[in-house]
Write a structure and sequence with these properties.
The complex is a heterodimer of chains A (159) and B (153). The longest helix of chain A has 8 residues. In chain A, 9% of the residues lie in helices and 36% in strands. Chain A contains two helices and ten strands. In chain A, a hairpin with a 2-residue loop joins strand 6 and strand 7. Chain B is globular and about 45 Å long. Classes of the chains: A mainly beta (159), B mainly beta (153). At the A-B interface, strand 6 and strand 7 of A face strand 7 of B.
Chain lengths: 159, 153
């Protein structure tokens, strides 16, 4: 036996990632923070969707992506305009290195992190949230966007 | 009044604003760092920092400095309920606003009206991200006790 190469998420060719600037409206205030998001999907990832998407949610799927935020980049505070909810699987890094998605709801900060590895979440994307990848590692997660019903209705349907 | 802040009728004089700005930018002004800074259980290379200095305008007021590239992530103040808040420097679009997270909306105090004074509710979650090219300064006067008199005036 001989080790020949190691596949990591970084192995994905850079030119295959579709670059998306933060979906939130540009701030009128001056600032220099890097805002960036990259998404990528190919048919080989379909198995992830098959693993984590409940059957009764299939009719609401609008897109599916591997999602990457580079080191020291952020998604500024925003509400998603293009989807109602989200099936969300944090992937890499893990534990304290995965900078959480931060929700601001009822005067509290609610964190969705990757301490519980493999956990899949249904997320309400109409609550203001932000991600600031302040680590020196790229941050990956798999997202299945849902559209057509409010989060509360999807939650009722899924539980 | 929004739950998070109220723009007051009273204003700082231009001369007072000039004194404050000079004191903020004076290299001899001494600043001390906050000690009660929140930490969480994630790798975080960002700089959560704010520092303070006594003012020459009022003995019970403090100048607050957020250096460029630094921030105060969203938080609720534990040590106080209200303050009078005056953005000082920089002004207009270079001043990173104080942002409140209320009822799934963002409410902001900026410095597009230099000299304006605000009554701020520090029990509503708020933050400041100074990713500009300038250090950021404001004046904060902590209010203790009943604010109904202040609101009535």
């Amino acid at each position: 036996m001989i080790k020949i190469w190691k596949i990591t998420l970084d192995s994905t060719k850079e030119n295959l990632w579709e670059k998306r600037i933060s979906t939130c409206s540009e701030s009128k205030y001056n600032g220099s923070e890097d805002r960036d998001l990259k998404v990528y999907w190919n048919e080989e990832m379909e198995f992830i969707t098959n693993l984590i998407l409940p059957d009764n949610m299939k009719e609401f799927v609008s897109s599916q992506d591997m999602n990457m935020i580079p080191p020291f980049h952020e998604m500024d505070i925003h509400i998603d305009g293009h989807r109602d909810a989200l099936i969300y699987l944090p992937i890499y890094p893990i534990k304290e290195d995965y900078m959480p998605m931060r929700y601001y709801h009822n005067n509290e900060e609610i964190l969705l992190d990757n301490y519980d590895i493999g956990q899949v979440y249904l997320c309400n994307t109409k609550i203001i949230h932000r991600i600031h990848n302040t680590s020196d590692l790229p941050r990956y997660n798999y997202q299945i966007s849902l559209k057509g019903k409010e989060y509360e209705n999807m939650l009722y349907q899924i539980t | 009044m929004k739950n998070c802040f109220l723009k007051l009728q009273q204003r700082m004089l231009d001369s007072e604003m000039q004194i404050l700005a000079q004191q903020c930018l004076d290299p001899n002004t001494e600043w001390w760092e906050a000690t009660d800074v929140k930490t969480d259980s994630y790798i975080n290379y960002s700089d959560n920092s704010i520092s303070f200095s006594a003012t020459e305008v009022r003995p019970d007021a403090y100048l607050c400095k957020t250096p460029k590239g630094c921030m105060q992530p969203p938080h609720i103040d534990r040590g106080r309920d209200y303050s009078i808040y005056v953005p000082i420097y920089p002004n207009m679009y270079d001043y990173s606003p104080m942002t409140f997270y209320q009822d799934n909306k963002l409410e902001i105090i900026d410095n597009l009206d230099p000299g304006a004074m605000y009554l701020v509710n520090h029990k509503v979650m708020h933050s400041a991200f100074n990713f500009t090219d300038y250090d950021r300064f404001n004046l904060q006067l902590t209010i203790t006790g009943d604010i109904s008199q202040l609101l009535a005036s």
